[in-house]
């Protein structure tokens, strides 16, 4: 497993040795702290990859090579399980970070806009009880997707709703809102859902299997929904689903194909 940053993993990830606690933690030197907190204060290098302990200016930082020599560990391979000496939460975060960065590879970039997705939508707090699979094409507008999401969530236009990436919700970098709500707000920073396609979002976010989108409903007392990209589908696969599957609901280019309901 490798990084696309052009920086060797042994230089990018270092072990923070605090001499406190039972395990040592990993710091990503290529990451920038986004908030001042005891877990990632701005005056310390990089970002610690979990919040299981606080950071201290007295901590010592060792390269992976020096750390393995010190601890007598044969070799650090992020594809394997975490050594007992290193925090398993940090270890998993490294693996997830590197996996996500694979999405920016040239081969995947060429496929963005030419594939569709199976999106599993859930509401936070009800993820195990209820979900809905929606297949979308790259030409599916976010307005079409919104109509299907609203069908099973029974959301209405009484409150604002906005789509974003990952865990963004109210901090959405997409700023995608239903067309009529954008018109009512009169704020040019918001984007009309009818003017943005799934392909546009996929290109902006390098959307691929395992990634997420978010939806917040009601900015005052928000409800949070999200979807996981369960599958990347060739357009032929989507055509087959449309013609050979009993669809629960559909638009011209998208459909609810499966569900789990309480």
Q: Which helices and strands occur, and which strands form pairs?
A:
Layout: H1 9-12, E1 13-17, E2 25-28, E3 47-48, E4 60-63, H2 64-71, H3 88-101, H4 106-111, E5 115-123, E6 131-136, H5 142-153, E7 161-165, E8 176-177, H6 179-185, E9 191-192, H7 198-205, E10 212-217, E11 223-234, H8 235-244, E12 249-250, E13 254-260
Parallel strand pairs: 8-9
Antiparallel strand pairs: 1-2, 1-4, 2-3, 5-6, 5-11, 6-13, 7-10, 10-11, 12-13
Report on the structure:
- The chain is an alpha+beta fold.
- Helices cover 26% and strands 25% of the residues.
- The protein has 2 domains: 9-104, no CATH class; 109-260, Structural Genomics Hypothetical 15.5 Kd Protein In mrcA-pckA Intergenic Region, Chain A, CATH 3.10.290.
- It contains 8 helices and 13 strands.
- The strands form 3 sheets. It has a 7-stranded antiparallel sheet with strand order 7-10-11-5-6-13-12. Strands 3-2-1-4 form a 4-stranded antiparallel sheet.
- Keywords: Plasmid.
β content, as a range?
25-35%
CATH topology of the largest domain: Structural Genomics Hypothetical 15.5 Kd Protein In mrcA-pckA Intergenic Region, Chain A
Give the biggest sheet. Answer: 7 strands, antiparallel
CATH architecture label name of the largest domain: Roll
How many structural domains can be distinguished in the coordinates? 2
Give a short synopsis of this structure.
With 262 residues, the chain is an alpha+beta fold.
Keywords:
262 residues; alpha+beta; Structural Genomics Hypothetical 15.5 Kd Protein In mrcA-pckA Intergenic Region, Chain A; 2 domains; seven-stranded antiparallel sheet; four-stranded antiparallel sheet; 26% helix; 25% strand; elongated; disordered N terminus
